[in-house]
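Table S2 (text version). Query chain:
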Amino acid sequence: MTDVQQTWDLIVIGGGTAGIVGATTAAQLGARVALIERDRTGGDCLWTGCVPSKALLAAAGHAAAARHGASLGVSVSSVVVDFSAVLRHVRSTIAAIEPVDSPVALEAAGVSVLHGQARFAGPGTVEVDGRPVAFTRALIATGGEPAIPPVPGLVAARPLTSDSLWELEELPDRLVVLGGGSIGCELGQAFARLGSRVTLVEALPRLMPREDPEAVALVHAALERDGVEVLVGHRAVAVHCEPGRPGQIVLDVGGEQRTIDYDALLVAVGRRPRSAGLGLENVGVEVDQRGFVIVDDRLRTSNPRIWAAGDITPHPQFTHLAGVHASLAASNAVLGLRRAVNLSAVPRVTFTDPEVAAVGEASWSSGDERAPLTVTRHHRHVDRAVAEGRTDGFTRLVLGSRGRIVGATVVGPRAGESLAELTLAVRKGLTSTDLAGTIHPYPTYGDGPWGAAVSVFQERLAAPRVQRLTAAVIRLRRR
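Corresponding structure-token output:
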């Protein structure tokens, strides 16, 4: 049994990605570490986020591929989706990955797991379901949860969120998705491919406002091809729901109202931090107006003995970033290091079909004359894309001084994988010449980034000054 009376070198609150990585990092460094989790280790990523959603997308992708194979000479007479079997696939995927994040695995890594609700009681003390636990340093990693916008009637309608979606037992006939960001687009497309009639509602003028407009246009078109009714510029103003009857959502567009019936309503408008109830005021940990824990560039809070990492901070909310930052925060905490975070090369991927992957500086012009140079390689020039009939994507590089790659956007199948080398390029200050001079396997979608870099080199060769120089050299070689 874990001895809660000892003073821990590091207390970690939260058993999601940030908490697990932070705790195991500190334990590997030789610290005495206790991780406190009120529910189950693994966090949103394992139970309600990355893992189940990608398993669902995989099933939906197979259904879509079967329907659209005729262009490649493969026709399927009918596609039958067994939603119960799809859910079994989702749950089996979770079950296969869960042991890696389990309390047993954490204990084996040298981390003691305490179950219960954590609350800071005062300097150097956190209570776990009322039991005092002493610590020298602490790491807050409680993550976030789906946000519910203040739409009249919405809470009473008990909508689905990315947390509760997985409790569905039947495929909804009519699904309304409120929110056109990454999560809304991914799940909306998946359910449409599985057979639901999906309406995707976004208040802003376009989907995925952070992404390259050309990329968003491709996703918008793909959603409509899959049968999704996409309503941008539509603001939800009310929700009506009576037991035993379909729900209704009332939308405002340009001052006029439209009512849509639904069998299931999914809210995907963003996430909020889980900072309430932690007793942060008892230890002088400051939060911003939205409830995010304020941290400096070393992930230290306003209390010099407490750090924070992951979705509880204002930094981008990605599992991969949460893990990296938690490792940095934990080593800073237990070793007294002063390593700072670097947000210049944080990759992000929207797992629609086509995928949209981006890193670094924006790949579209803001109208500023000083905007960095961009170069685009459309996938109609990528042989693998041609062979697979997937030529609607592109790769766009953003070039800074001396041809350094400072940003990129990739759209297409497995764009997230193609983005990996571009993230390294941004992180290490590599140039388009470095990328162009690296041999890439053929034929792959990696030809997109490589071809974009090669085109920069070719443009330089075509410059009049270079042409005059090479012509002079060739004339000399003829003698």
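Notes on Table S2: The domain at 7-146+272-335 is CATH 3.50.50.60 (FAD/NAD(P)-binding domain). The first strand starts at residue 7 and ends at 13.
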